[in-house]
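Please review this one:
***
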Amino acid sequence: MVSLLFLSSQAYLLPLCVLFILPISSPLLLCLSTSKLTPLPPPTVFKKPLALFSLSPTTGFYRDGYCRVGPEDSGNHAVAGVLTKEFLDFSASRGNNLRSIGLEPGCKWCLCTAGWKGAMDAAGKEGEAVVPKVFLHATDQSALQNGVTMETLKKYAAEPEAAGGGGSLEGKAPITPGVAGGIAKETH
């Protein structure tokens, strides 16, 4: 009889151990381990593994392409959004000039939850285009713990995200930054 013991935590994969119980000898426990622990992908707002969001430009607090959040990320860069001219203007007017690091409309970027929520709150006055479209399959679940509701995220979800999908963006028509609707796609 062979049974597998999976030892893990939310943050890391620990060594995998296999217990062999042989009829003629005492049990034998074999463990496979590496010197480096592999991080588990954090869950999305759908409680599924976080998807890679962008490597061009390389985004995320850890600059690994994922909108994952860790203890060092006090800004909670959890929201996977596509930048619009209106959002870049809005963000710059509040002291966060994302253009200064080379970002432009159409770039996919992991946004601070508070900054995205601020744009959403200002949408009535500034217009809907100020709120970046969100990719839910790449948005860390911690966004929901920082004043943003799933209903609000779905309202601003990129298609087919609003339907709870995700999937490939290949072959889809890109959205025009600043215009509601359509599919968001990297422009560079």
Observations:
- The chain has a mean pLDDT of 75.
- The longest strand covers residues 12-20.
- The helical segments are 85-93, 113-126, 150-155.
- Residues 113-126 form the longest helix (14 residues).
